[in-house]
Specification:
By secondary structure, the protein is mostly helical. The chain is built from eleven helices and no strands.
Length: 208
């Protein structure tokens, strides 16, 4: 493993543990037992390092999504498994990291290399097409427009004025908005599956 990858993985661990703003380049260098100069030979500044961390996390999330898509029996199971994974990941992150990500969300999402490759930017269309093919989503929906609406739902969860962090958790917001939106585009078959997965606890018995 090269220095770039080692630095990214250690920075990701420290960001998630202590928060982004709390971690300095000195702390990262000390943790890795390398010089700060070595880090700066790879990354110009902390902002570039953060972009590298988010890009790495995005690649891992895409790999996870691909696995879940291939292993799930239907698209509603895909959605519930991804929500469960999201909740599990959030529970392992420090509140400081989640708060920092909310604060930095608008700035980070302006970076083309991050914005265009974020999992929820590209996966919804695949999920929508599969749902229509399975008879789970209505075949009269406009896929592109529906995708944009779903993205706005996700982005809305980062608005601290609408959802103060002291009152709402990200996962509760996403579950409430996302699942209710899915109900609106679902066929009766889809509505039945959503109810089954919500009430049966079947996913807790699957390997996530």
């Amino acid at each position: 493993m090269d220095y770039r990858q080692r630095i990214i993985e250690e920075a990701a661990h420290m960001f998630r543990t202590y928060g982004i703003r709390a971690v300095t380049m000195d702390m990262l260098a000390n943790q890795m037992s390398i010089s700060k100069r070595t880090i700066y030979e790879v990354f110009a500044d902390k902002e570039e390092l953060l972009a590298g961390v988010i890009d790495w996390m995005t690649v891992r999330q895409k790999e996870t999504l691909a696995r879940v898509l291939s292993e799930s029996e239907n698209v509603i199971e895909v959605v519930f498994r991804m929500l469960d994974l999201m909740e599990s990941h959030i529970n392992r992150m420090s509140p400081a990291f989640l708060l920092d990500m909310k604060r930095l969300h608008e700035k980070v999402m302006k970076m083309p290399e991050i914005r265009d490759n974020f999992p929820y930017m590209s996966s919804n269309i695949e999920i929508l097409k599969r749902g229509i093919a399975e008879g789970v989503f209505r075949n009269d929906i406009d896929i592109d427009l529906t995708n944009k609406c779903m993205l706005e739902v996700v982005k809305m969860t980062h608005d601290q004025k609408v959802f103060p962090p002291d009152n709402y958790t990200n996962i509760d917001i996403v579950k409430n908005f996302y699942l209710n939106y899915l109900r609106g585009i679902s066929t009766q078959k889809g509505l039945t599956l959503i109810e089954q997965y919500e009430n049966s606890g079947i996913l807790s018995q699957k390997h996530l």
